[in-house]
Amino acid sequence: MFKKILVANRGEIALRVIRAAREMGIASVAVHSTADSDAMHVRMADESVCVGPPSSTQSYLSIPAIIAAAEITGAEAIHPGYGFLSENANFVQVVQDHGLTFIGPTAEHIRVMGDKITAKDTMKKLGVPCVPGSAGGVATLEDAKALGKEMGYPVIIKATAGGGGKGMKVAQSAKEMEQAFQTARAEGKSNFGNDEVYIEKYLTTPRHIEIQVFGDGKGRAVHLGERDCSLQRRHQKVFEEAPGPAISAEERARIGKVCADAMADINYIGAGTIEFLYENGEFYFIEMNTRLQVEHPVTEAIFGVDLVREQIRVASGLDMSFVQEDLHINGHSIEVRINAEKLPNFTPCPGRITQYHAPGGLGVRMDSALYDGYSIPPFYDSLIGKLIVHGRDRPEALARLNRALGELIVDGVDTTVPLFHQLLQEEAIHTGDYNIHWLEHWLETRFGDA
Ligand code: ADP
Fold first, then answer.
1. I need a labelling partner for 19 at 20 to 30 A (CA). Which of 144, 198, 391, 448 fits?
2. Strand ranges (DSSP E) for 263-405?
3. What is the pLDDT of residue 450?
4. What percent of the chain has pLDDT over 70?
């Protein structure tokens, strides 16, 4: 087992990894930008190294700086968290070239799944059901229009390199195709340096269901059920839960096995998430994330496993500490993402935290790097915490979420907490009867285009 690992990230996910390492008797190294000198991950790690100025391209994304930090401190492995370098195949290669271990999948798997066209192709070959759409990239507007006609509108045009909701445009009709096609290409080019796009049938009432998979890199893989992340704003998740309220045990076992078998087939190592849209009882693959997800705690809650610990185990060459038969669902878990954002526009709201009090009690987990007097820098993501609750069933989890939100105090900046208070008043949240468009419609009716 490793003696020391470096965590190439910040915020709550850096704490998450440091905590797992500490429980395993592994020392941790934090890296930080000059804007994060006072950050909690720096305080909590055993050692820390400043890797550059505030701009993430010059600090958290600087491969030479991160590698140098690992070499200086004698860290043997690097955990990337999510975001930043977590899905950068080149980084994985450089880490290995320096004789270090990347805690995550191989560069090859990251590359294959990072390109949405090759990912879809690969999954199709592995027997995973996909959204109907173009066979590969679509090069010209004429081809796009011909496909739209053939498939029937609405369709969605997606940048093959896209992510984080960027590079996706819906065309409701042939008339809208030109603009949607050009915009998706331009967004792909400007955000990801790749303007290749492909086209899919746009599903009108799906749920977002994702399967957590885990492999040991030696041909064994398991699934840990699904998460329902249908409550989204601008294709970004805000509320996630497990198990999915609309998924039966038979459906879970069936799609879970398809996913686990696919991962075993390719010798996948570490944690991964296979994302699907789910409509009328059918699953349609949309993409795979080759990393730990923000919402992984809801899966940890219902299965009683530590996914980061497992990531570190398999990266060090050990086996996973469970097999499929050991994995049983216990109760229901919900996570809400607490962002420093001002409603109703969700404008980022960095600033100084004048008071912070985390909720507690049975079945409550607060993953956050906040503390009294902390100043949220304006340079990074606005996620400042994740509140995760676990109950015996969904109604208990919802009641607990309501109770825990009531205890939470974050003063000094605006947050998305009021959104969750309001959502908990909604019948649909309690019945679980919603799809990926529900939240956008709800926001529109409440706040209009504000
Ligand atoms: P990203 O990589 O940017 O997160 P995804 O391909 O994972 O993009 O899609 C993100 C979200 O966009 C989905 O959860 C869903 O809400 C919506 N979406 C993607 N593909 C489709 C589709 N074919 N039909 C309807 N909605 C879609």
1. 391
2. 269-279, 282-289, 332-339, 341-342, 347-348, 351-352, 355-357, 364-368, 375-376, 383-391
3. 53
4. 100
Whether 203 is in the pocket of ligand 1, judged by its Cβ within 6 Å, is yes
Q: Which of 239, 176, 296, 199 is nearest to 438 (CA)?
A: 239
Question: Cβ(232) to ligand 1 under 6 A?
Answer: yes
Q: Which of 291, 313, 365, 394 is catalytic?
A: 291
Is the distance from the beta carbon of residue 199 to the nearest atom of ligand 1 less than 6 Å? no
**What's 83's DSSP letter?**
S
Alpha helix ranges (H) inside 74-227? 89-97, 107-114, 116-125, 141-151, 174-192
pLDDT in tens, 188-213: 999 999 999 999 999 999 999 999 99
User: Contact, 147 vs 171, CB < 8 A?
Assistant: no
The best mutation among 155, 235, 274 to test binding of ligand 1, ranked by most ligand atoms within 8 Å of the C-beta, falls on 235
Residues 149-185: pLDDT tens digits?
Answer: 999 999 999 999 888 888 999 999 999 999 999 999 9
* Interior angle at CA 444, CA 439 and CA 450, nearest 5: 125
Q: Which residues 6+ apart lie within 8 Å of 140 measured at CB?
A: none
Residue with tokens 């958290």: 60
Task: Supply the pLDDT for residue 160.
Answer: 92
DSSP 20-67: HHHHTT-EEEEEEEGGGTT-HHHHHSSEEEEEESSSGGGTTT-HHHHH
Q: By the 8 A CB rule, do 386 and 338 touch?
A: yes
Asked about 43 being catalytic, the answer comes back as no
Q: Which of 256, 264, 270 is nearest to 226 (CA)?
A: 256
Q: What is the pLDDT of residue 273?
A: 98
In 10 A of CB 447, how many CB atoms? 11
CB 98 within 8 A of CB 75: no
